[in-house]
Amino acid sequence: MSYLHLKVPPTRDIRLRPCNAYGGNLENLVCGQKEGCLSNNGRTFAQTTGCQLTLAMGMAASIPNTVVIYHGPVGCGAGSLGLAGQSKMSQQARGNDDAVGRVWMSTNLSEVDIVSGGEKKLEAAILEAERRFRPHAIFIGNTCVPAIIGDDIDNVATRLQDRVNARIIPLHCEGFKTRFVATAYDIVYHGILRYLLGNQHDRKPIIEDEAAQIAYELRRKKTVNLLNVGSMGYVDEVELVRLLNAIGLEANVYPCFTSPEKFVKVKDAALSISICATHDDYFVEHLKEHYGVPYVLNTIPIGTDNVRLWLLDVADFFGIREEALKVIAAEEAELNKALEPLRKSFVGKTAFVSTGEIRAGAQACMLENDLGIKVVGIRAHHYDEFGEIVFENFKDRDDVTINVAANQPFEQVNLLRRLKPDLYLGHGNSNVWAAKQGVPVLPIYGPNNSYLGYKGIFEVASRLERILSNPRWYNTLGETTQLPYKESWYEQDPYLYIRQTTEAA
Ligand code: SF4
Question: How much distance in Å is there from the Cα of 176 to the middle of ligand 1?
Fold first, then answer.
């Protein structure tokens, strides 16, 4: 799928044809996705959703010693304000005591600029970023306005590259271009591949014989790329590196919170190990095509079933399955002993899970198989071809409703009123709605908490046990909060506004 010759990679809407609007059972979702008809689904009424700019700039800004420039009206950066300190804390957690955190600028386009063009302001911002911060790389995040008026950010970057030391990396992450904010990951990886790893867009995909030879050489090295995500705490990285070390592998972690200078080593690894296909499929496929680095990306290591699958995928590549099975057996035995006293708190409890596709499926599976909590509903931000493995646990299950929705709190409040779960595991923004309905909430990730690997299973179980032992705060919030929806809405089908298509386009 090499797209590195393109200035702008295709959006997920075109490349993967995912679905962002669905309500029903898993069987129809999986069938519809395979047939290609679900990508045409939509809503006849929808509330706001995210903008890929925020996600792209968050990922870019996690890379130390860089400046991100928002090229557009100043308001486009507003969504990033809340994340200002997170990058610094996360870098410090990884041992960078000099971390300054996110360094960002805006070209602050005005109404006059929209008529006369914004390229001059962008040029000035790049030169100012270089003068003030001397960064290793400058990311330009293009917003809707300059894209519509025709500013050529690639041309500006090329013109200025000889005048600045920093690598200038244009990112075409305009919000209006896609319904799927995960496109942002492709955009940032595209920039890293095209501009940070050298003139790699000129590099031709390698041929099959060459790939076999490279794969053989790499396998001997036993050093792997572990791909993290911005929302993954350092504690999770430590846990996954521990497991990889336990089966005899060394791991370098990319791309978030890793200095741009270190990126060059990414192409020398034996294997790229993803923890989330939604995040990484674009990157690992290009690393394979252009450098011969193979990859695994079947699942996220959440819950014993998926940790096992993840580790065995890696072990099978190196031919060390037996060693991995021994590590897994020892870890699972210890974990089971630790979980035993907690499990009685979960008897008869139900949960609703809401997050990204891969995490949603694996987290729901962990609740049922490791803790004995019955899952009554799963809400994924989108659904695509990578969802099938992690949702496997729920096939043939008509007692679990599957909702595909990014935000859309009106659908969620209706579902929660009907399903009345004892627990809600979800994202920051949707958590608030569940809490206001009186449902105890466990945030599904946070940079200081542990979620992945065996440690993550125990930590999540411990936190759930604590929440269930005293849900009073949530109960009071639910009893005293009036949500903005009329009672008549709760009597309607929660999926009333989803327009389902039955035929592929
Ligand atoms: S959708 Fe466009 S205008 Fe709105 S924040 Fe995103 S880039 Fe800016």
Answer: 7
364-381 pLDDT tens trace: 999 999 999 999 999 999
Q: Is the pLDDT of residue 219 over 90?
A: no
The CATH label, of 3.30.750.24, 3.30.390.10, 3.40.640.10, 3.40.50.1980, for the domain at 336-499 is 3.40.50.1980
- The CA 144 to ligand 1 mean position distance, Å, reads 6
- 114 CB within 6 A, ligand 1: no
Domain 208-323 has CATH 3.40.50.1980: yes
pLDDT band at 204 (very low <50, low <70, confident <90, very high): low
Assigned superfamily of 52-178: Nitrogenase molybdenum iron protein domain (3.40.50.1980)
Tell me the chain's radius of gyration from C-alpha atoms.
Answer: 23
Measured from the Cα of 79, ligand 1's closest atom is: 5
> Which 8-state DSSP code applies to residue 470?
-
- Strands, E assignment, 381-477: 401-404, 423-426, 441-443
Nearest-CA residue for ligand 1 atom 5 is: 76
Q: Using most ligand atoms within 8 A of CB, pick from 104, 143, 180, 187 the residue to mutate for ligand 1.
A: 143
Measured distance CA(143)–CA(137) in Å, rounded: 19
Percent of the chain with pLDDT over 70: 95
Residue with the smallest CA separation from ligand 1 atom 6 is 175
Q: What share of the chain is helix, strand, coil (3-state, %, to 5)?
A: 55, 15, 35
Q: Ligand 1 pocket, 144 CB below 6 A?
A: yes
C-alpha distances (whole Å) from 208 to each of 3, 167, 175, 297 are 19, 32, 38, 21
Interval between CA 9 and ligand 1 midpoint (Å): 18
pLDDT digits (tens, 9 = 90+) for 306-341: 999 999 999 999 999 999 999 999 999 999 999 999
**Whether residue 51 has its Cβ less than 6 Å from ligand 1:** yes
How buried is 225 (Cβ within 10 angstroms: 0-12 exposed, 13-18 middle, 19+ buried)?
Answer: buried
| Residue 443 confidence (pLDDT) above 60 | yes
pLDDT tens by residue, 146-195: 999 999 999 999 999 999 999 999 999 999 999 999 999 999 999 999 99
- Token pair 């690393």 is at which residue? 287
Q: What pLDDT score was predicted for residue 250?
A: 92
Pocket mutation for ligand 1, best pick of 70, 172, 176, 183 (most atoms within 8 Å of C-beta): 176
Nearest protein CA to atom 3 of ligand 1, as residue:
144
- What residues does CATH 3.40.50.1980 cover in the chain? 52-178, 208-323, 336-499
Write down the mean pLDDT value for the chain.
Answer: 92
Decide whether any atom of ligand 1 lies within 6 Å of the 143 Cβ. Answer: yes
